[in-house]
Write a structure and sequence with these properties.
- This protein is α/β, with parallel strands linked by helices and about 350 residues long.
- About 45% of the residues lie in helices and about 10% in strands.
- The chain is built from 15 helices and seven strands.
- Helix 1 packs across helix 4.
- The chain is globular and about 70 Å long.
């Protein structure tokens, strides 16, 4: 397969980012990588690519190294393909259309765990933002810092939601759910009998986020294969400042680097088992990063654009997720919460057990 010119590809990416008025540091990263590669002998470039040491070069990071490797392999870098695909697209219009298509939110918390408001207030706020359903996903037992629900408390919540639904406005309902911890061995932190009763199960990693990549990969693959899990929540576990994704934007804010795992294997498992990747809309998460989200689109994944809301006003944060989804070319028909509640429940009930 003939190679492409990685310098030209990096410069093209920088140009498109600049034209889109992206952050200066991001543009500079690609221009710096292009300058480094241009000054490097072809033999050393090939050797470093084969050995996976491109990111050790000055001015080259993980993202630019991936672009270089893809270009040398004769492939248009995924990052560039995403930019070219959305070039000329009315991204604001596309994001607004996607937000309009959303019929619910599949990840929200109440004061039964670490949310700040009663279930009723969260439900009425969801009605106000135009939703037909809200999935209540309070935390599971192991997350004691968030007052995770024991099996007994979850059963009480299910009874409470059943009564509450009878009093809510016509055309809206709360769907039962949980944000269940993905434990160290990949099992889910709640009784199987209860998980089977729930409408939607979001599974997230909240502990040992700095595990080595092979262990984290095995952990995530085991959870994805579990028939009870429907949505993989905030996939990397990262925290960013509300100002943006770049290191400079993070300074002074509470940050946490993303977990490391084999992205291709995790996404392939989501496709194989029919599970959705969450696009977490929280300004302090924005998870997964755009480069991963683009790869997930290419892999054929389903998605769920969720707020992870812990207060009523946060239910309007979906627009942030929609903006990222539009930028990365996420098709609306692959977003599970653009579906009716009936179709969503058919999907969650249809995951076959792993063989």
């Amino acid at each position: 397969m003939p190679t492409r010119d990685p310098v030209a590809d990096l410069r093209r990416i920088a140009f498109l980012l600049e034209r889109a008025n992206e952050a200066t540091y991001r543009v500079r990263a690609f221009r710096s990588a292009a300058a480094t590669v241009a000054a490097l002998p072809a033999a050393e470039l090939a050797e470093r690519t084969a050995g996976g040491t491109l990111a050790k070069l000055p001015g080259v990071g993980d993202v630019t190294a991936r672009c270089i490797a893809e270009s040398l392999a004769g492939e248009e870098p995924v990052y560039l393909r995403r930019l070219e695909t959305t070039e000329g697209t009315d991204l604001k219009g596309a994001a607004a259309a996607l937000r309009q298509a959303l019929r619910g939110d599949c990840h929200a918390h109440s004061d039964w765990s670490d949310g700040g408001s009663p279930i009723e207030e969260m439900a009425l706020a969801a009605v106000e933002v135009g939703h037909e359903y809200l999935v209540l996903t309070d935390h599971s037992p192991r997350l004691t810092v968030a007052r995770g629900l024991t099996a007994e408390r979850l059963r009480k919540q299910l009874d409470y939601v059943e009564r509450l639904n009878e009093a809510l406005p016509d055309g809206f309902r709360i769907l039962t759910g949980i944000e269940v911890d993905i434990l160290a061995d990949g099992s889910l932190d709640q009784e199987d009998e209860l998980l089977a009763r729930l409408d939607v199960v979001v599974g997230s990693v909240h502990s040992n986020l700095r595990e080595e990549s092979p262990k984290m990969t095995r952990r995530m693959l085991a959870a994805i294969a579990n028939p009870h899990l429907d949505i993989l929540g905030h996939m990397t576990g990262r925290k960013v400042s509300a100002g943006g994704e770049g290191d400079r934007a993070h300074r002074g804010g509470r940050t946490r680097p993303p977990s490391t795992f084999d992205l291709e294997k995790v996404l392939a498992a989501c496709v194989e088992h029919g599970k959705a990747v969450e696009i977490n809309s929280r300004p302090d998460r924005l998870d997964p990063p755009k480069r991963m989200l683009t790869v997930a689109v290419e892999a054929g994944c389903l998605f769920s654009i969720d707020t992870d809301a812990h207060a009523p006003g946060q239910l309007d944060w979906q627009r942030y997720g929609c903006e990222r989804a539009a930028l990365c070319g996420v098709p609306a028909d692959r977003v599970v919460n653009t579906w009716s509640a009936e179709r969503l429940l058919e999907w969650t009930a249809g995951h076959p057990a792993a063989e």
